[in-house]
User: Fold these one by one.
Assistant:
Number 1:
Amino acid sequence: MCLSIPSQVVQLHPEDNCVTVDTLGVQRRVSCMLLEDPLQVGDYVLLHIGFVMSKIDEEEAQASLESFRQMVALMPKQDILPC
Amino acid sequence: MREIQLSHGGGGVEMNQLINQLFFRHFGNEILLRGEDAALLPVSGPVAFTTDSFTVSPLFFEGGDIGKLAIAGTVNDLAMMGAKPEYLSCSFIIEEGFPYADLARIVESMAAELAKSGARIVCGDTKVVPKGAADKLFINTSGVGTFPLPEQSRGISVRNLKAGDAILVSRDIGSHGACILMARDALQLGSDLKSDCTTLWPQVEALLKAGITPHALRDATRGGLAAVLNEWSSASGVAIELEESAIPVCDPVRGLCELYGFEPHDLANEGTMVLALPAEQAQDALGILRQFNPAASQIGVVLASERHKVILNNPWGSRRYLELPQGELLPRIC
Amino acid sequence: MLTLNDLFQGFRQPEVIRALAAQITELAKDLPEPLRVMEVCGGHTHTIMKYGLHQLLPASIEFVHGPGCPVCIMPKERIDQAIELASQPNVILVTLGDMIRVPGSKGTLAQQRAKGNDIRPVYDPLDALRIARENPEKTVVFFAIGFETSTPMTAALLAAAEAEGIENLLFHINHVLVPPAIHAVMADGVAKVNAFIGPSHVSVITGADIYLPIVDRYQVPVVVSGFEPVDVMEALLMMVRQKVEGRYALEVQYSRAVTASGNKAAQRLVERFFETREHFRWRGLGDINASALRLRDAFAKRDAERHFALNQTPIDDHKACQCADILRGLAKPNQCKVFGRGCTPTQPMGSCMVSSEGACNAYYRYMGIQ
């Protein structure tokens, strides 16, 4: 429903339950109040209005990207040229 | 002196001290130091004349400050007509209590920026207003420029775009706007991003000297790339078609836009030039521009059309209009 | 090694989008009837329009825009209440960005701010706590809006305020729920929706299983999709496949972020502070049972609606405004008589035009070319 984009955890701040995340070179401190399990540096997360909403499942992301690679490889070239 | 007082604008001893110790010291040139009521300019022939006021907040940001902006902004307005920036006026409106050290830092920054074009401040004014009557510091600069390369600059006008012209940008877009947004506490963001604030005359001079004959030049300030291109298509009665994938945007600007739902083409620039020029000159122009910034790119073309709109083509074949940005820039949330 | 760029660009690859478009177009030839798919979430409407995905699809697939814009579905009287609150002496009204542009019956919060009321748009609800801490002699009211994605953040703000003993922070709660809105659209019957794109981030919080009753009751596919153009196209392909195979089921396309049961910690936090209201009046959809939240009695002292006597009289929209029909999926924004004429993003007559989640706003910004 609301804007949420992927970011990467670059620093932990356990003392106030926050982390610093990076989004393409822009960094922000965000709250982890809504998460059960602690994050690690390098984790990918979804942010929403100043909070970490959830961790991104890297295996699922990789699986999706791999399925796209295979799909494009199998398509006849003329179907994927620009119209 | 630690802070600027009302007496510094009073016309008396304190004001003269300020002018001598700070303004004359850093801006000094023979016209200014004459101290006449008005500057006599040794100019003949056509001149370009422009004015701009600067109220940016915060006053200091990554890559610049209000002083650098005040010089680059006015100098660039002249350069965008193909005019060599020559003489500037400079008015300060200072809020009582403003730190002297900050004013000195700003004035030094202005002197450094003037050196990039060789323009000189030849007259000025200083006012100090009571606390609360102004937000720290406002600066107005007006500027006069001449035309050393009249053949090349003759055709520059918002009305002069021709079907078939190439549309170029001199570097990646949106840095200044993104930088200011990030500098405001409200968003609490950190990054290495610097404002693109800079004097563009050296680039314009290089283009004109190489024989490039631009049809239009504009620094993409408030309203960003979208504002410039819409004004051009409307004034020249043409359509402009852009390839989204060709528009250069650096990572932190992209990151900010992703985070808050902004579009890079709506963000202000203070040292990024948009050009419309004959298609056959595009490669040469890019060669020259890339010496100043490797991100210079051709982003689109001008088309003859009844509908004077700016069209954005995305990489998978869909299209939409790029409209003038509307309203206050608020982050998208929910 | 997955990079951050993969997570952005990986789901915006042109060849993947075109390949999916080709597959959808081919498979759609076998659709038993035209697909009328409702994207519930206003953010999805914007993705579809901004990336021009509708330009890549066959005519047998039509989008019906849903009511998933929390600002758009807010009736005028509640916006007026925000203005009433902001006009009180010693009140600072804090709300999320978009709200300040939305028109009530007598103007917007932005206009009130220009008149001198202390109204502060924020990006992060925790800023309201800081404002309350910094202004102990004032009453700070957080005007909370949003579907299930944003409710946990308001709850987190409440938890922080309680933990720190910040007494001068009150709340005006306008949190609403997705499933009742979907039921209302289907009960209406007129929009003739036969498939749903489930919201991305509501589902991250709630879990995808909340849509199972919708699948069962209306026998329509619900595919929970991510926000990126590849996500939406893949979700459409999954939906078309279901229809062609004569199935209807809940599927999750956004598998990298959405699970069956969602973010339990966030859900527990919401449970602690909120309960369901019996009624809530939605713009366009009318009164819907159990569709919105309010603060539990234990936190009545923080409830601005109980603290201040606010005018609860329903206020109708402008006669020419067709937001109601648009929110119910009965009309498209460009069918509204005042679209682009009396009603624009800078001079909006209804919130659908000014909100960045609103269908009218999406059409105004992206559909001009059509």
Number 2:
Amino acid sequence: MLLIPCPWCGPRDEIEFRYGGEAHIARPTDPDALDDRAWAEYLFMRANPKGVFAERWMHSAGCRCWFNLLRDTVSHRILAAYRIGDTPPARDTPS
Amino acid sequence: MTQPFRLPRGGQIDRERVLRFRFDGREYEGHPGDTLASALLANGVRLVGRSFKYHRPRGIFSAGPEEPSALVQLETGAVTEPNRRATEIGLYDGLRAASQHAWPSLTADFGALVGGIAPLLPAGFYYKTFMQPPALWSRLWEPLLRHMAGLGRAPRLPDPSRYDKHHAHCDVLVVGGGPAGLAAALAAGKSGARVILADSDAAFGGALLRRAYRIGDREGLEWSAATLAELGTMSDVRLMPATTVLGHYDDNYLIATEEVGDRRSAAPKVGLPRQRLWHIRARRVVLATGAQERLLVFADNDRPGIMLASAVETYVKRYAVAPARRAVLFANNDDGYVAAAALDRAGVRVAAIVDPRDAPGLTALRSVEPIPIFAGYAVTATEGRGALRRVWLSPFPAADRSRRGRSIAIPCDLLAVSGGWNPVLHLYAQAQGRLRFDEALTAFVPDGAEAAVRCVGAAAGHFGLGQCLADGATAGAHAALLCGFGTGEAPPMPKVEDEEEAAPGPLSLLGSHHIARRAFVDLHNDVTAADIALAAREGFEAIEHVKRYTTLGMGTDQGKTGNLPGFALLAATIGRSVGETGATTFRPPYVPVAYGLLAGRERGMLADPVRLTPIHDWHVAAGAVFEDVGQWKRPRYYPRSGEDMAAAVRRECLAARDRVALLDASTLGKIEVSGPDAGRFLDRIYINRWQGLPVGQCRYGIMCRDDGMVFDDGVGTRLAQARFFITTTTGNAAAVLDWLEEWLQTEWPDLEVFCTSVTEQWANATLVGPRAREVLATLTPGLALSRADFPFMRMREVEIVGIPARIFRVSFSGELSYEINVPADYGLTLWQRLIAAGEPYGITSYGTEAMHVLRAEKGYIIVGQETDGSVTPTDLGLGGLVARDKECLGRRSLDRRDTARPDRKQLVGLLPENPEEVLPEGAQLVATRDRAPSAASGLDPGMIGHVTSSYFGARIGRSFALALVENGRARDGEIVWVSLLGQVVPARICQPVFYDPEGRRRDG
């Protein structure tokens, strides 16, 4: 069970959280300007990297705030947690 | 004489007290401190069970959690447990245990008589023997195998024991309380860190319990007692004996089971749970899990009386049991010799030591003088039906011609075997630790250091006692330092000289025997050397494949004693090194766990929360039959005497259509959406318009996901300029709140909107029917109720019988209807007053079943019933609701090529040709009567849709259904076929409104 550092509440067990998929996918401001392919790209296509991944989580049994994590999908190490709207930290794995 | 094999003195047992227990019906005696295994051995019981596959007689092979053979059925009735390891059951007075999978009895076992079927059970037999003819599988093979195989019997009664859960946090968790673990706990504890020390054994000490080590100038056990006493004085150190760590998960989250009542009696003392499940989050973990001895592979190496050398030591020293009269030791390493010396000291005649190495270590040889040594020999066969009688030795390796010599027979009733040691790395591997094969140690050892986990002592392949102590102290101090405690400097440990050992012998004795059918690699799963060789011949080379093909290391044993010999055999067969072949995955749990422990107290009423409406007690008194809707209990119908469900539902429906009826709709999800931007927000969430909704008015709305699929629906009402009250589907309330919050937080943080769940703040009594207005009027004399004064889709805030209420004129039945919301605490009062006021009008309470019939007759959808996440508003015939001139979730997707397709599955009505036939919901629809696809015509009579709702309509007097059908609207009037078990039934497609399509009745 991951120990997730909620940016508002501090480290809490994974069971308190809900997963929200890939982070930093902005909803297009003018969907009508996109053709079907571009719209489908936004709707359905998600990265599935082996390595560092920026993903959304929600502290559903806590403060109910959404936030972002940088997590290594291989080692499950969490490299950073940051609030919605914050710039993602550099993705280099700290040694 | 009782306990004929008990030594006259020694052992950590309480000889003053006698415990009586029964095994397979016979009564025996033992002492506190015994395990079931040690007590059986003390009484001379050698044959304890039959093996899993071949029903071979088996005895006690080990003295710990690695026991592969002595699995027993503990106790009877509700508390019975299968597959308990006799080596792990602390003896208590009155214990009852029985051998497993022996039928009709342990000594005359049917399975063993038909041992002739063994050739039918080679590696992969599941895939081979029983393939043809198919009929034989279900009639013969499966029943036969189920009867013969299997491990024990599951209890048939509910477990009466209590189990608890405990969450704990610590800085340093030390797993294993042997010398290394004790040293680590001491070092960490001295620094002031919060420490937990857990050991699966009821006593700490590890190897000190079985061997007479000296630590400094003390006996090993004196040192451990002193260390434990010192740890006991530290307030932040928690000592947890009898606690087995089962699994190691992400970020040092570990699960452990603590035996609380188990070791004392079958029925634990009142107030104590039987076991506790510990959830431990540790900042650092020190794994001092020790090592387990390996077996050696030779023909008939499974007879009762063949036992690990370390287990022999344990029985002699810890339990004062001599498990034999005349013993032979077969060891490929120096460490095994200690068992021979221990037996000798205990007065057991050791007839021979057999060692495949030509040059055993000198210290080892000196320690066992004058026992005859057969160096360069291997045990190649054994004899004895129910118990070992004789072993045969041959020179090793047999392939070496110069070594050919006569085999030698030695009578004995105990063969101690030692194939070297495996560090116990289950938890380390579960924590993503990498393993490396160490050729010098012939064992997998931890490779590199995981940041927050460290193996010490024997678990790290450091088998010397002095090394274990130093290792533990260093790791304990370092772990504490990393948590911010102490200096990181290890406290001084007493001096221990580790003896030099000669290199261990080969893991695989391939060549010392024919690859015999009965040379067992995995005693637990009855996997033989021949099985491994066969798998290799058949092309299975990847270790994970061989595991599954042969069942090596599977099941509850997880390959504790036999895995590595199996890997070595495979490696030798296919000409690779063990390191190249690799190891299989270690899976939690480390030892079997009772389901009851995992469930804890979350069973029965506590398994899942039950949500009741404020009116619940009235429903119970009225004899309602309830159904579960999410976690809610909702009345389904209220049968009167002599009524079945159909009759009750019909009566309730007709009351709502013809007179007046009352529904408890309190479970409806309710959310207040407030803030200056609430209207703008709802415009983006719902497919229709909300900003312009006047205060006091209601509107039906549909929410779509951004892919255009219907997510939820409900009625919203504008309470004030910046305050909306929306309702959701009962089972979807939490998901809708999540959805609203997600978009507000992640995409539109600029909107000033607040969402509050108020589902449980309001009770809802829905008054329905043509006489509803008259009933309501008696309770709200000040409120103008005429069609013009209180029109459809309006809300009024009034007092009703002195209770503040919101009355919504909305309808989910098609009839004149008032949804009366009052604060939850007044719900029951309101309900009772409505029932009383309605009495002269024949008011009838109705449940969810009638509610469904009423809404379906009107073609009103239920999200989750008519929709399944692949249905758009257009598919439901509600495309007209979509406001095309504003942006909202899902709108763009409705124009996607696939979503805009005209021939998608669409909501239609269905009238079965037989008006009495109620189609089953979920039934598949086909376009043509002949279900079998016709290859010639190329026609595909495949499924074109399914029934989503189906009832007998009380007012319309016939059966009807709603369905999703491909291109359904264009098929109006066509016949489709409903595919049921054994028959195909015709039904006609129609408009999905069956009653009052003009909507005349909603105003009463």
